[in-house]
Protein: Stage V sporulation protein AE
Organism: Tissierella pigra
Amino acid sequence: MEYIKAFIVGGLICVVGQIILDNTKLTPAHILVSFVTAGVILGGLGLYKPIVKFAGAGATVPIVGFGNALAEGAIEGVKKNGIIGAFTGGITAAAGGIAAAILFGYIMALVFKPKTKN
């Protein structure tokens, strides 16, 4: 049942992104930033935690989960280090994801030719 929940929630997140991509002139980069921002806002307000509890990897693996990880890291950083933790906590919590994004983005840039959306 956990796999089904993860599939449904992760799929719904992807469907929302695809609908936005198909029906607007927004580029994938705009949608990416919007989803990360939504994850930060939902995580900061504590609204994303129940979704993660319900869907597990279906909610943490998509890019919205990355934004949530940034928010949770910043909150923990503030608890440990005060206001400076707001800046360092998110990066510390998401360091693995950031490193992977840089590495795989670089590899994809070498393999494929990026195109702009008309």
In short: The two ends are 41 Å apart (CA to CA). The CA atoms of residues 33 and 45 lie 18 Å apart. Helices lie at 2-23, 28-44, 49-55, 57-60, 63-81, 85-93, 95-111. The chain is about 80% helix and 0% strand.
